[in-house]
Amino acid sequence: MSEILLINLSILILFLPLAGFGVVILFGKRFSKLYLFEQGIITLAFILSVIVAVVKLSSYVNQDILFAFTWIDFGNVPMLGELKIDLGIKLDNLTVIMLFVVNLISMLVHHYSVEYMKGDAKYNRYFAYLGIFTFSMLGIVLTDNILMMYIFWELVGLSSYLLIGFWFEKDSASDAGKKAFIVNRVGDIGMFIGILILFATYQTFSFDAIYEKISMGIIPFDSGAWLTAAGILLFMGAVGKSAQFPLHVWLPDAMEGPTPVSALIHAATMVAAGVYLVARIFVMLTADAMLVIAVVGAFTSFIAASIALTQNDIKKVLAYSTVSQLGYMIMSLGVGAYAFAFFHLVTHAFFKACLFLGSGSVIHAMHHEQDIQKMGGLRRKMPLTYLSFLISTLAISGIPLTSGFLSKDGILAGTLAFGSLTGHWLIPIFGFTVAMMTAFYMFRLVILTFHGEPTDKHKFDHAHESPRLMVYPLVLLAVLSIFIWYTPNPLAPNQGWFLSSWVKTPQTVVPQDLRFEFMQSTETGTGIVHSEMYEHAMHWAHYPAMILSVILAGLGILLAFMMYQWKKISPDKFAEKVKPLYNLSLNKWYIDEIYQSTFINGTLILSNFLAWFDNTIIDGIVNGSATVTRLFSRISGWFDNYVVDGFVNFTAFFSGFIGLSFRRIQTGKVQTYIVFVIFSVLILIILL
Amino acid sequence: MEGFPILSLLTFLPIIGMVVVLALPKKLELGIRYTALVFTGLQVVFAAVLLANYNYAAAGIYEESSFQFIEKFRWIEIPGVSWLGTVKIDYFMGVDGLSVPMILLTAIISFIAVLSSWNISKSVKGYFALFLLLDTGMMGVFVSLDFFLFYVFWELMLLPMYFLIGIWGGPRKEYAAIKFFIYTLFGSVFMLLVMIGLYFSAMEVMPDGSKVFTFNIIAMMDPSNFTVEGILSPFNPNNYRFVAYLALFVGFAIKIPMFPFHTWLPDAHVEAPTAISVILAGVLLKMGTYGILRISYPIFPEITRDLMYYIALFGMINIIYGALCAMAQRDFKKLIAYSSISHMGYVLLGMASLTSTGINGAVLQMFNHGTITAMLFLLVGVLYDRTHTRGLNDFGGLATQLPVYTGFVTVAFFAAIGLPSLSGWVSEALVFIGAFSVESIRTLTMISTLGILLGAGYMLWTLQRIFLGKLNEKWAGLKDLEFREYAMLVPLTVIIILLGIYPSAMLDIMNTSVNTLVDFLAVNVSNSASIGLLN
């Protein structure tokens, strides 16, 4: 198959779901069966993406396929010369694997939702929204440049907003949608400034072109600090979308959306977009930027796992576990274990989608009950759901023979190697602690939900296995969580095709003095060879990490069984003993409350103050000057009336007065005149 | 198109419409409405004809010969008035890449505003007569190349606006109308002074070789046209140009409106009838920024360069301050009015960058803001027509009752928030790209990006308060959109989506002129510096 055909096919895959969205949103009201159109479209997109992935990974495994076009042409710009904004797509191994993953899970969720959403008043619109989500996500996956990624990044935010708030009649749902969009915007601002830095320096948005220039030693504003800043700012986008601390707060709330949506968007695909972004910018990350990323990831995985320990809502536990696992992936990128991060992204997508869809199956069976304390014993009622849920739980806990074991082990080995190479041991400590906590809270979830005796007899009696259309995705995803799809040797992920030929750590382009020493890699004819010290450290870390992680996971599982299955340890009494820690976990470290009282209230107070200021001071000055003008006009009116005109009138009056006075004299009688004359003469004589 | 006076036609078509309206009997209200609709519709058609014949490669800006559709003839001539010499004023029109987008905007918005005026019932004849007069004033501003003519149109549009708010407005209409009128007039006085100052400083060479004082804006851009002793001459050692620049800027800033001259806007919007709000936000505000780009920038390039930091600073203040004020509003229309102030801040920021991307973004933002904010005001009007309230807390759950209306609101809101794939984002992004590339205003640009966060905050909050949640039973009987409302909302939606996906449709029109303007500013600043004019 030719390259052109592959490109055309992937463009088709991209736009199919958009067409689905357009048709269903416009005509969905008139034709109630139109959701079937969207179903067909996504199934077709999946089949095409399988073809693209197979062809790419077999015929073009070491070759990227590119396609670009000019979106905006500024012509010959003063001082810069020719300036264009190009958009385009790039098919590399990462892309086609993501195409497959996104389309597969999207298709499964589409099928699953047919049953799950049955009877909803906005049935068609729901599928339209799934369509626009898939379109946006595929855009992120396919792009070859950071601007187009930002465009689709925001569109994903929109579809997430629409789907979280799908049941907008509930205030909690509309709040959650709003929160998700706004919190994501915080990260997006950082990402956007990062993009601005890159464009201001390189006049292009294309990843490849930017990296080529960095490798030639051109860095933003001639300063390594700016290159680090660019990396961290772009990473902020991932902090928002992949729900990393401190912007993780939106993801648990996003569980207000329908559960299949949680599986697709808030577990498997969209939240992984942040990881995908960091993978895309991996080669331009400086040592400082990588360290920040590793610390954020490690801390996030820890904080989320610690919260998941005490949650009782089945979806909330899974949500925090998602945050925690995303933290793993981010941490993995930060410590340089690029391939394992992406590997974990893929394995996590399958088992976490399976867990979420499984929880949906439970919620469906329990008539929208989500509290695990009211469940129990469900394995007898829903064996297939239970079995697939269990396999996925084993995978997320990192038990051998599962996919999760392979990817998680690699990440932990990466953190150990990083610790040994740089001395940042705190990161592997976080990593291993989280591995134990994960096993514990996941088995707590399984035991409380499926094992033991039912706590709500009534609901239990009505529970039943879900319809086939809902169960088949679970089974398929559980099957994909087994090692065999990735490597023939369940203990050595490196020997599998996924890591040995598909996904390899790319060569960094960061100047020597700005990158970690161990990131030194050389490109040979056959591919990239890591520095000897890194290979050595990884090799050293491999077995200790594997053994330690299995032991810790086993301990976590054992503890869960002791507490909830065999009831040897009372969870309540234990909680009582560590009351402050327990409360911290139960209340999610009070982070929402802190944000509410600082940022949100602060902004509201400021905005109210400014509105008052605007109305009273600024407009007051305007109205005041009008009043002053009126006052002046009144004064001058008075002045005009009484002083100026008064003078005129006074003059008139005065002359009148004089006239009047003298009129008395002018009596017309000769006798009087003679008297005046005589008096006058007398006065004159006296005076003289 | 050679010799066909399309600009005069575009400008005076509404006046013909006004005459027809005045000739119609008062009772014939429907006839009057259709007359207005036909004439504004014809204006759209001629604007399209203009675009079809417009040469994208010609620059305009400072070169009279590369302006298009030029109409120039002697309008007023007073021979030999003592020391004044011969007073010659030209009727001079022409367009380039800065004006064409504004012409298209004016035509489209006027047409849609007529549709939204359909329900006006108070003295229909007077309303539409004034409306059409206003249309002429606006169009005239965007096609004039003679300062005197520009000023005439600028003032012409003031009068109908005053009456349209003052007679057809809300409860505090008199206050709002007076405030608008006096505030703008206050700015116009400054403009008038600068105009006269420039007139007595610049001379144009006549075909017969004689030199006369001129109002020709393009002639004023060439330093060699200035007399040495002219008060606003760049050669005059007492540099009054700085003061003149500020005065002129204040005149334009009031129209934008730029903080702190903005408080007339919320009042005017709240009181004005829907269609007039649409015109106000859609077209009138653009006159301020257009005036700066057309007149202030190229006539005073060296001062523009000196003050760019402050222009960017006020842009940033507009963005942040407007957004924060919007967040505190409880009146739907007032909220949109403040958001409008915030979004005009992007225009200022982009202009201040003096880069191609920034100014392209600014002009595109002028167009996009015109369509998006017009649509927002239309949508407020649609709701107000049905409920007679604009209190943000009086609603709730309308999405259930009015799904189609809510769909349009969502598009408009997300366009205003700056969602990629809708037009508003492209211009905002270009503004940021341009402004960020200039070191001196880089920090301001980074602070300004907070605007896109605050915008999302107040817009989504508003969306939630009005449309989401449980339906407020009071509004259970509301009807969704009718045909006329579709007719005014669909075109704007199409434009917003189209320019979001394919912004080149508009950028290509303006790009050559913007590049030329940027180049002209850079070259002139260095020229003035080299001959020691800059201190």
Folded structure, characterized:
The complex is a heterodimer of chains A (688) and B (535). Chain A is mainly alpha-helical. Chain A is built from 26 helices and four strands. In chain A, strand 1 and strand 2 form a beta hairpin. The radius of gyration of chain A is 37 Å and the shape is elongated. The relative contact order of chain A is 0.07. Chain B has one domain (6-526). Chain B is built from 20 helices and four strands. Chain B has a two-stranded antiparallel ribbon. Chain B has a two-stranded antiparallel ribbon with strand order 3-4. Chain B starts with 5 loop residues before the first helix and ends in a 5-residue tail after the last helix. The relative contact order of chain B is 0.10. The model of chain B has no long low-confidence stretch (mean pLDDT 91). The interface between A and B is large, with 54 and 59 residues.
Compact overview of the structure:
By secondary structure, chain A is mainly α.
> How large is the radius of gyration of chain B?
23 Å
Strand content of chain A: under 5%
Strand order of the largest sheet of chain B: 1-2
**Helical residue percent band of chain B:** 55-70%
Radius of gyration of chain A from CA coordinates: 37 Å
Major sheet size, sense and barrel closure of chain A: 2 strands, antiparallel
Tell me the structural class of chain A: mainly alpha
Provide the low-confidence segments of chain A as ranges.
none
Portion in beta strands of chain B: 5-15%
The helix count of chain A comes to: 26
If interface size is counted as residues with C-beta under 8 Å from the partner's C-beta, which chains form the largest one? A-B, 54 and 59 residues
Query: What is the helix tally of chain B?
Result: 20
**Mean pLDDT reading of chain A:** 89
Please indicate the count of domains of chain B: 1
**Could you state the order of secondary-structure elements of chain A as H and E?**
HHEEHHHHHHHHHHHHHHHHHHHEEHHHHH
Mean pLDDT of chain B: 91
Shape of chain B: globular
Class by alpha and beta content of chain B: mainly alpha
How far apart, in Å, are the first and last alpha carbons of chain B?
47 Å
Give me the count of strands of chain A. Answer: 4
